[in-house]
Sequence to fold (283 residues):
Amino acid sequence: MPGLDGKIALITGAGGMRGVGRATVMKLAGEGSDIALSDVRREASDLPPAEVREEWGGIMTVSEEVQALGRTALPIYCDLSDPEQIEGMVEETIETFGRIDILVNNARAIIGKDKVPVTDLDKEVWDHFLSINTTAVFLASKFVARHMIAAGNGGRIINIASNAGKQASANGAAYSASKFAVIGLTQAVAMDLAPHNITVNAVCPGPINTDRMSYWERDQAAEKGITQEEFRSQIVENSSQNTPLGRIAESQDVANMVSFLAGEDSSFITGQAYNVNGGQLFH
Fold:
C-alpha cells in the first residue's frame, strides 16, 4: 500500500512544467495522496520559453497527470499576494476533500528584478518578495493549521526555503531575507503546533534545474545575444562544476525530501531545515 494512501495534500506553485511543485504533486499522488494544487495565472511574458513554446497548460495539465494515476486532483488558481484568495484556496480544498493532511508551501516570487544591490532595490520588489515568499507561507499555514487542529488528526506542513535562507549573497537582499524568514517561521510554527501533533519542516534546495522564469536571466541573455535557454544552460553547467556531487538538483530530488517529511517515517522530526544541495552548503 502506498505510504500516503488516502491523505489529502495542498501544494502551492504547482503549475511549472519542470518545477518542484509538479514533481512534488506527482510524487505524493504516486504514493496515494489526493491533491489540491494551486498556482497563479501568468501572462506569457512571465513564463519560461519552453512552456510558451509547448503551450504548457499549468495546473490543469498537472491535474490531468494526477488523475491518470487514479487519484483526485483539484486545481485552484490563487494569487498568493491576496490573503482572501489564500483563505479561499484553503476553504475550497476543505469543501472538496473534507480535510487537509499535508500542506506544501512551494510557490515563490519570480526572481530577477531583485538581483541588484540593496541601494538599487525598489521597495515594491522587496514587498513583493516578502508577500509571496514569506507572508503567503504564514497565511497558508495559519488557515490550514486551524483545520488540522479542529480535525484532531495531526498533520504535516512543509515549507520550501533555500540555500539563500541560510547563506546570503550579493544582489540577493529581498530573496534571502524572505527565505531566512521562512526558516524562522518554520521553527516558530513547529513549536506552536507540536501539541497538536502537526510537524513543520523546511526544505532548503540549492540551485535547481527547473527552467523557472527569471527576468535577470532573460535580460542577461538578451545582452549577450543568445537565447534565455542557452544562458540558463551556462548557469547550470557552472553551478554543477561548483557542486561536490557534480550536478545541481533536479526537481525530483526536492520532491523526494518533501515525500519523506510528509510520511510516517518523519513523525518525530519538526522545526528542521534540510539541505538538498549536493554538498554546496552544510549547515
User: Anything to note?
Assistant: The domain at 8-212+250-275 is CATH 3.40.50.720 (Rossmann fold).
